[in-house]
């Protein structure tokens, strides 16, 4: 999907949770004249319920100091942390879930699905990034696309254990907070697995074509995230979203609508909840906030 070419090749890391949380991404600090700016945070509130909405980047470069100020206060005040998914403690369990959905049922070799020129570029890109394309022959194209979309960043030395969700989860466990999820790992992986073959191939080909720009594109997106600029983040993503409306509907808009319904139902219970989802879900048209507005629920941006 052009969600990954080239802007949303990297914006996938702002949209999908645990499925991509083991991969590496770039991160750049953004400073203003009056100090470090914080990522955006929103609040949904009634008489006895408060829900915070925080957009995340699922993996970050070490040394990023974002968990403080209003974000930390909101988290500390919350009774429960809610993520997109809860990753299994055993990484082999996630690998098993993904592998079961990724294997091609028609037994067709992945590279044979591609046109000759595209096949040559794909195989060269895989080899250049330390991914043996032969080992992916049993898989559907979306699996290779995901692997290839993040592999170049691994070569840049970014770490896999610095993601926002990992830090929040550790803090929640340390303080005895309940941890919940909006989706299951099977559901999240299923969004990719259910893509029609034509879209899977387009996604893979676009991933290959966009590899040269991935670092610069992601740096730009993440700088907007840290600067608390969701509108600019959305502008970066819009071109690719508009170019792939079917994929945007499946991977972004439908999920936003489901999550808004979940939030509406949760507002019927007292308490304070801290929801952390990929930042792309909280930016632009049809965001979670827009879906909540359609349900008659207002959100307010929290200012430091």
Automatic annotation (TrEMBL):
Keywords: Signal. It comes from the Bacteria. It holds the Pfam family TraB_PrgY_gumN. Residues 1-21 form the signal peptide. This is Polysaccharide biosynthesis protein GumN. It comes from Sphingobium baderi. The lineage of its organism: Bacteria, Pseudomonadati, Pseudomonadota, Alphaproteobacteria, Sphingomonadales.
């Amino acid at each position: 999907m052009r969600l990954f070419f080239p802007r949303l090749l990297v914006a996938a890391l702002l949209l999908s949770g645990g499925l991509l949380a083991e991969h590496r991404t770039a991160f750049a600090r953004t400073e203003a004249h009056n100090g470090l700016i914080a990522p955006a945070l929103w609040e949904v509130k009634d008489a006895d319920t408060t829900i915070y909405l925080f957009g995340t980047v699922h993996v970050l470069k070490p040394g990023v100091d974002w968990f403080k100020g209003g974000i930390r206060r909101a988290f500390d005040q919350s009774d429960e942390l809610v993520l997109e998914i809860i990753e299994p403690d055993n990484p082999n369990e996630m690998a098993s879930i993904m592998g079961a959905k990724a294997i091609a049922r028609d037994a067709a070799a992945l590279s044979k699905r591609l046109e000759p020129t595209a096949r040559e570029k794909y195989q060269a890109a895989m080899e250049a990034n330390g991914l043996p394309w032969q080992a992916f022959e049993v898989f559907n194209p979306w699996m290779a696309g995901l692997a290839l979309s993040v592999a170049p960043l691994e070569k840049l030395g970014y770490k896999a254990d610095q993601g926002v969700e990992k830090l929040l989860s550790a803090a929640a466990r340390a303080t005895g907070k309940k941890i919940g999820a909006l989706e299951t790992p099977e559901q999240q992986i299923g969004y990719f697995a259910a893509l029609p073959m034509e879209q899977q191939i387009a996604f893979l080909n676009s991933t290959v074509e966009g590899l040269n720009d991935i670092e610069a594109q992601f740096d730009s997106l993440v700088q907007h995230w840290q600067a608390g600029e969701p509108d600019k983040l959305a502008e970066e993503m819009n071109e690719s979203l508009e170019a792939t409306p079917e994929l945007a509907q499946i991977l972004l808009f439908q999920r936003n609508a489901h999550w808004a319904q979940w939030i509406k139902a949760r507002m019927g219970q007292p308490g304070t909840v801290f929801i952390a989802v990929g930042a792309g879900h909280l930016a632009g048209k049809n965001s979670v906030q827009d879906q909540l507005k359609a349900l008659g629920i207002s959100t307010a941006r929290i200012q430091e």
